[in-house]
Amino acid sequence: MQNAGGDHHDRGSIPSSAGTDTSVAAELATTNLKDDAAAAIPSSASDLKHPLRDRVLIRSILSRPDGGAALAGQRIRVLGWVKTGREQGKGKFAFLEVNDGSCPANLQVIVDSGKAKLGSLVATGTSVKVEGLLVAPPVGTKQRIELLVEEVLHVGPVDLAQYPIPKTMLSLKFLRDFIHLRPRTNRISAIIRIRDALAFATHSFFHENEFRLIHTPIITTSDCEGAGEMFQVTTMVGEAEKLQKGEVGVAAKPGIPQKDGKIDYAADFFGRQAFLTVSGQLQLETCACAVCDVYTFGPSFRAEHSHTSRHLAEFWMVEPEIVDADIQDAMNWAEAYVKYMSQWLIDKCHDDMELMDDKGCIDRLRMVASTPFERISYTEAVKILEEAVKGGKKFDNKVEWGIDLASEHERFLTENKFQKPVIVYNYPKGTKAFYMRLNDDSKTVAAMDVLVPKVGELIGGSQREERYEVIKERIMEMGLPLKPYEWYLDLRRFGTVKHSGFGLGFERMLLFATGIDNIRDVIPFPRFPGKADL
Amino acid sequence: MQNAGGDHHDRGSIPSSAGTDTSVAAELATTNLKDDAAAAIPSSASDLKHPLRDRVLIRSILSRPDGGAALAGQRIRVLGWVKTGREQGKGKFAFLEVNDGSCPANLQVIVDSGKAKLGSLVATGTSVKVEGLLVAPPVGTKQRIELLVEEVLHVGPVDLAQYPIPKTMLSLKFLRDFIHLRPRTNRISAIIRIRDALAFATHSFFHENEFRLIHTPIITTSDCEGAGEMFQVTTMVGEAEKLQKGEVGVAAKPGIPQKDGKIDYAADFFGRQAFLTVSGQLQLETCACAVCDVYTFGPSFRAEHSHTSRHLAEFWMVEPEIVDADIQDAMNWAEAYVKYMSQWLIDKCHDDMELMDDKGCIDRLRMVASTPFERISYTEAVKILEEAVKGGKKFDNKVEWGIDLASEHERFLTENKFQKPVIVYNYPKGTKAFYMRLNDDSKTVAAMDVLVPKVGELIGGSQREERYEVIKERIMEMGLPLKPYEWYLDLRRFGTVKHSGFGLGFERMLLFATGIDNIRDVIPFPRFPGKADL
User: Fold this and answer.
1) pLDDT digits (tens, 9 = 90+) for B390-420
2) In terms of CA atoms, which chain B residue is nearest residue A121?
3) Nearest-neighbour CA in chain A from B189: distance (Å)
4) Diameter of chain A by CA atoms?
5) Alpha-carbon torsion (A43, A48, A52, A54), positive or negative
6) Which residue of A267, A285, A306, B376 is surrounded by the most CB atoms within 10 Å?
7) What number is the ipTM of this complex?
8) How far is B389 from chain A (nearest CA, A)?
9) Which chain A residue has the Cα nearest residue B255?
């Protein structure tokens, strides 16, 4: 079996380091290290040196345009885990493919039997820290540089009989039972890097555009109406238990159960019922209506018994709130943000993207980064779907004006009809939340959804109703009480401004970018009904 | 009363825009706008123009080295809220100090009575969007540029009789009852910008140093032992309520209360008891032991009935986990990170820092950014404290080897003894968690705390016990069950590596940086016993 990261012919002799080219030789001449001339680190080593690390990241070697070839002759330390290893040359040498998670590629590390007990090194999963010389490999091998070990500094062994993550290809489903070890596999570590890149791209995009990050609350006493079922946060259950166990120092009246069967939330930690947030939007608006453009990037929760490949009980959401923006502006910002993230991945994560099973994912990102998104009104969308039905297309859900578009409808629009991202706007007010701005037709609200191939809805947003009388009317029309929303109404009472915002499901973006099928594989610690490992 | 942002003499005539200097005239000559020569926007306007905004951020005018003077002659739009406003010249003009939250300074905006009903503009809190010409103010005024309005595009009025945030100086304590409006005040909006800057500085620091961001779970079934009381996350309480109300579709067996008085967590959402995280450390280690240096930056929770100015039930924490790092390395990283944030604020938030009541805060940041942190062992720290007691210093808590250092001890060390940040390391093992690495003396563990003036403990960290046999022993020695930690032990069983990490309380860093006294004022939506507004 060919290993992705390296290429080792059966070789019985140590590769020579004499093959260092003239540029390295020139660099060697400029060395300013005094301790050992033979081991001198050329001045370009300053690229590799970090003031707080004595090891070198494998990425900083292998991601160079020359694959690291020009570094031949340098003495370095690396640490990582053995992906594959084998003894060769009748037990004289061990060839190890070592990965440190800094990039998908492995560094080939060669240890001779004088340096360590080779049998303890070759098991997949073994950690090693070694010091050695970077050398040019023999002509004909795939890699451009390899490490000839002079000293083995650390070995963390693995008993292969016990290790649940052998080197054979494992399914993502299988790995979900080992979430503490799956980051050691190629695809999951690539997803970790892609996720990290998208998070930093997000902060970069909003900071370049002068948005302020706001930490909206996780525990909330507000309900962002209609967003979904909520988890309750309490200290009463535990106190009830402690009380039963006869522990002292527990509140005398834990609230559960009272004699009348009701729950007395005044006895709970916050003195009232509290939940995990389903969206930071309403709270975020308080800051937008003070310091203008803001965003939040935090966890969000749904206590829904969904066992699909698209839902999590805990997920991350990016929510910008933009002042002086109408629904068209919100669409412009959403499109710019998705394009920015797509381009970021193309520029910075190409190697990781190539590891994905979905070989079309890079092309999809390129398409999204360069193609204007289609924009159609909800009414137009329904017409297109109705035409499709007339043309013989079958949907499970009925198509008619007024429905909430189902996932199959959304995917038809983006994947079949337009084959690119589609923004649908101006939805029937009956399907949407009270805070969305009523259009002049009094039938629709200024809501928009961004639909992308592979995923369907990636972003949902709206222009917010900034008119005090109108929003008050809408709250009452929907049968909601005014009192819990008084603070929200204050934003319209005092110095109201036009504003819009949207929410991007961060894991949805990851599904879209990587082509991974199941959302449980793009978050490090997935939570869904019946599962919250670790 | 002198207003911070502007300076308007009683003036009865419109200031002239004839004072534009030659450089602006030169720029005007290069204009490439065709619509209206008189209103031509000089080419330097491209600095101000944003492809997705038609308004200009006030910061981009006033934060220029020349205070915006060179922009005179440009036609722009701004949006913001009136800080102070008054009519002058017998009702001919309104002078408005307008703030848009992009910086602490206000833009002086002048509207004549032909453009709007001036009485509706001058109330504090009114929102306005206006278009006009930037002009040089008369000689002798403080500001370098002001806006002469040609068109009023939007007014969001305020009824001052109802508005809870008048322009008088309000105490931070008073403002805590209006968390939805307090971002409109000078100090709270400055704190929002400082908080945003520190968050971005954090991501920048760790990315520059090749750490990967990991989203550790918020809902957890693990207990990061010893970190504190936990909130429980459940859907059973609500279900019990619904059941009582006779709602259909509710789980038949909600678990609370059972007849035997016990709680059946198998009926809960995750099939077991679940909590809000107190630290992402243990989960983060799974990723560190796969892709090396990682960090998490997320919310953390403590269900403790603390009503102090230093504790929150919900707060944000930055936790890096560093592979191949011992306790000394962890100290190096912690010091580098705190210095980086301090320098970042000095460089980028000077104006906001100057708004703080604590006039020493900028000097304190400078000191921290430039002074090496003192490093002393716990044993040395106790000796110093004992000396102080001998010298007459009174502490509420007894000083002797083996105690957990109290806040008063920590602050004495950093504020009195050394007058700079102090790192205390190697604590008695009895005071610390099982995962901290046992030192060779078998009495202490490789833990460290970073203490800073004004706050005390800012960071807590440790080298993690990477030796399988030792950590297993420690878990048992502390009377903890092994089974819940089997996954954690796997990290030591399979390819173990030396690693260290720490946690920085993000709000503590804000207290330290701003000198604000109460932690409830440095988080947008504070949660503490009895309080979870919005």
Assistant:
1) 999 999 999 999 999 999 999 999 999 999 9
2) B495
3) 7
4) 88
5) negative
6) A285
7) 0.91
8) 34
9) A237
